[in-house]
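Below: protein 1.
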Amino acid sequence: LIAENSELEIIKGAEQTIKRCKPFIYCELWDNNKRNEVIRLIKSLGYECYFRVSGEFIIVDIDQYRNRNLFFIPNE
């Protein structure tokens, strides 16, 4: 699925499924106003934000990390 800056609407539409199934989520988020809204929404669903380096997931300080490629992994 190619979202092209529609991730917020997609996540909102899938919110109940995300809550129930707790999938790993990968998003390529552009550095714009929707980015922070998407991150806030996914974190409110019980997820933490990561990036990947050399095969290892590293937790993101979202205020410092501006790369587009983000992984959201459930806290549970």
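Below: protein 2.
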Amino acid sequence: KLGSRGLPRHRNEGPHAYAERISAARPELSIPVRRITELYTRVRYASEDPERWLPRLKEQVQAFRP
């Protein structure tokens, strides 16, 4: 969604670095971007059950309006 708004993620940029860059460029998006990033990293990288967080991540992404 942000890529189509002129803020694409760079190839070498991790999720947290991307969230920081977006937060600096668009402070009004800081809270939802950080929330989505936290959920994404739990689903993608956490050793705990990712299925626990996936529905909430999907909900947050669908509700996100940059």
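Residues 9 and 18 are 6 Å apart (CA to CA).
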